[in-house]
């Protein structure tokens, strides 16, 4: 439960990339790296809608693929290095420290002109993860950005369970008050 509350808290920290421009499933998940806008599309191929795109929240454990492409710029002369990170320190995460995450997978430099730029992993632990992007321009300049997301928390089911629990509590209170008025 503390991961849930911490994840909600982290979404409001101004130092993190907030690339989600709409509801989950919207393919307008934009990451700004310097003057370059990249579209991030996450896939998990599970659930009732396996072709759904994800952004800040990946509800399932298992095979996870994150793909990047350009929104507006011509990236033919650019490349990107991707690192998938897993939270290693709660305190580091809260304080935005360098030791907050550890690398669990690293992709070699990928060129936008030659292939689909992506990283995939079989994620088996519910936790906070991040994608570190290192954009290499034609002049050799590197721009770093980190994108934080949650994996393995089925928020829709959690919210339904909370709503059902609140309805039971409300029904209990109403019946208890109705019973006490009859006496």
Describe this structure in words.
The protein is α+β, with helices and mostly antiparallel strands. The chain has two domains: 2-152, Sandwich (Immunoglobulin-like); 155-183. Helices cover 23% and strands 37% of the residues. The chain has three helices and ten strands. Strand 1 (30-33) and strand 2 (36-43) form a beta hairpin. It is elongated. The protein starts with a helix and ends with a helix.
Task: Put the structure in a nutshell.
It is elongated, with a radius of gyration of 20 Å.
Helix- and strand-based class? alpha+beta
Terminal-residue CA separation: 41 Å
Biggest sheet architecture: 6 strands, mixed
CATH architectural grouping of the largest domain: Sandwich
The first-level CATH class of the largest domain is given as: Mainly Beta
Q: Return the domain count.
A: 2
Q: Please mark out the parts with pLDDT under 50 across 5 or more consecutive residues, or reply none.
A: 12-27
Tell me, briefly, the overall form: elongated
Query: In the CATH scheme, what's the topology name of the largest domain?
Result: Immunoglobulin-like
């Amino acid at each position: 439960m503390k991961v849930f509350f911490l994840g909600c808290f982290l979404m409001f920290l101004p130092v993190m990339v907030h690339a989600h421009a709409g509801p989950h499933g919207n393919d307008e998940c934009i990451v700004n790296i310097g003057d370059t806008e990249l579209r991030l599309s996450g896939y998990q191929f599970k659930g009732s809608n396996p072709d759904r795109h994800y952004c800040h929240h990946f509800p399932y454990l298992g095979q996870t693929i994150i793909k990047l492409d350009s929104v507006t710029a011509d990236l033919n002369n650019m490349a990107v290095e991707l690192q998938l990170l897993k939270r290693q320190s709660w305190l580091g995460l809260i304080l935005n420290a360098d030791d907050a995450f550890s690398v669990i997978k690293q992709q070699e430099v990928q060129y936008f002109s030659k292939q689909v730029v992506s990283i995939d992993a079989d994620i088996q632990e519910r936790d906070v993860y991040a994608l570190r992007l290192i954009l290499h321009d034609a002049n050799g300049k590197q721009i770093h950005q980190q994108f934080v997301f949650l994996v393995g928390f089925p928020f829709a089911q959690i919210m339904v369970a909370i709503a059902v629990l609140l309805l039971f509590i409300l029904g209990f209170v109403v019946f208890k008050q109705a019973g006490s008025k009859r006496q």
